[in-house]
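Suppose a colleague, Dr. K., hands you the sequence of a protein chain of 481 amino acids and asks what its three-dimensional shape might be. Before reaching for any lab equipment, you can write down a predicted structure in C-alpha cell form. Begin with the sequence itself:
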Amino acid sequence: MPGKSDSLLVGLIMGTTKITMIVAERDRRYPDGVRVVGFGYAPSRGISKGIIVSHLDARQSVEKAFKDAQSITGISAKRLSNVVVAFNAMDVQSESTHGMVTLGGRESKSVETSDLDRVIDRARANSVLATASRNNMYSLHMIPTSYELDGRPIDEPLNMNGNQLDIWMQTVAVPMTYAQNIVNCVQTVGLDVKGLVLKPLASSLGAVYEEEMRAGCISICIGGGTTGIVLYRNGRAFRVMSIPIGGEHIRNDLVQVLHISPGEAEQLKKRIFAADFDEEEMRREGIDIDYAYQIVLARIEELFGKYIREALAECTPQHFPNGIILSGGVSMTPGIEQMLEDVLQMQVRKVIEPIYAMPPGLDNPSYVSAAGILRYQIMVEQDPYMFMESDQILPGLSERSEQRSRQEQKRTERRNRNTDGEYYDEEPEESEDYEPGGYDEGYDNGGYDEGDGGYDDTGESKRESFGQIMRTLADRFKKLF
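The predicted structure, expressed as C-alpha cells, is then:
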C-alpha cells in the first residue's frame, strides 16, 4: 500500500462493463478526507463475470483507462503508476477463525502492537484458507471482526490492560490464478500493484456510512457481471460474497427474447431507465415496452427471490437494524428497492451518489467502487489492522514493484534517522502541467455504468407510468412468495 507520504491516491477498478482509474489528493484538513482530481475510463474488454478471459483485450482496456487518466488530470505516468486494484472473482471463499494469547503473568498488561500481531498470527494459523498450500487460494483479506479482553467485548484492544486477548478474524480468499492474472495484466501496462481489493468490499465502502456499519447493515451492489454482498456489524465487515449475476444478464435476456442485437439491447436498457424516458415514443417505434419490462423484471426476480434471499437466509432485521444499502447500476431501476424490501422483509436505502464528491459522470451509484477504493486506502493507513492484506507474494509480481518497495523502505529509514528529529515528506515531483482538480468537467464517460449504464436517478415525475408498472409487477412477484 502507498505510504502516507504519497500525495496521490490512485485506484483501478476492473469491472465487467468498464475499467475506471480514479485519482485523488488527500485533503490534509481532514484525516479521512480526499478530493478527486480526475479519472480515466475505458469500456471493459476481455473480462467476464469479473474475471479475465482475454489477457490482450483486458490489457488494452486498462491501458486506455490509464492514458485517459493521464490526459484528463495532466499528471505524469510515473505519479499515476502506483495503484490499488479492485477486482471481482468467482468462487470467493471466507472463513472465520479464533485466536487467543496471554498478555503476561498474574498481573495485567497493556496490549501492545506485538501482542496484536501475536493474536492475529494465532487466528491465521487456525485458518485453512490462510495457511499451508492454501489449496491454490490467495488470502486476499484478513479482517478482524471482534475482540475480547479477559472475556469482555471491546472495539480496539491497543493500550488497554488485561490478561488474555481473543480475536475473531474473517479470511477472504479467491483462486490464486484470478489474482495472479489481474496483477500480470495491470503490470504489463507499466503500473505497480500496491494492493488488491475485492470489488464487493470496495463498493460497500463507497456506499455505506460509518454509523450504518456500526449499527449493522448489508451492502448489496448490483454490477455489470456480478452482485456483491458485504455484511457489516459493529463497524466491521464480517462476510463478503459475490453472485455471478448482474446487469449484463438483463441485456442478454433482451437479446434472446426480443431477437435484437447486443447493441440494440444495451440502448434499450438505457432508454427504459433514463430520466427522460418516453414510453409513448418507444411504442410508436414499435417497441413492446410492456414485454421489455417483464423481461427486465424476470431477471431481477431471479436475483432477489433466489440468489440474494438464499445468501441472506440467516439475516434478520434484528441483526441488521440499518437494513440494506443498495447500489450499482441496476439499483437505479425505479421501484427496485420496494421489490427487495418485499423479498427480504428489511428496509432498503438506495444510494443516490458515492460517499465522496465525484466528478461529473461518476456522481451516481454506478461508481461507488471508485469512491470505495479511495476510502479503503485511507482506512488502511489510519488502522493497518482494519483490512489486512496477505503477506504472500503473488507469483508474477514484477522486480520493478519489489525494487520500488525497497526504495520506499529506505526512504522511511532515512526519515527515522533524521538527526534533528523532524519529519519531512518526500513527495514525488509534480509534472509542470499538473493542476489539482484539473479534470475536464465536460468529459463524457460514454454513458456506461456498473451494469445498466448511463441512466440517472433524477426526474422521478417522468417515470410515473414505469413506476406504476413496476409496482404492479412487484405486487405480483410478492404473491409468489
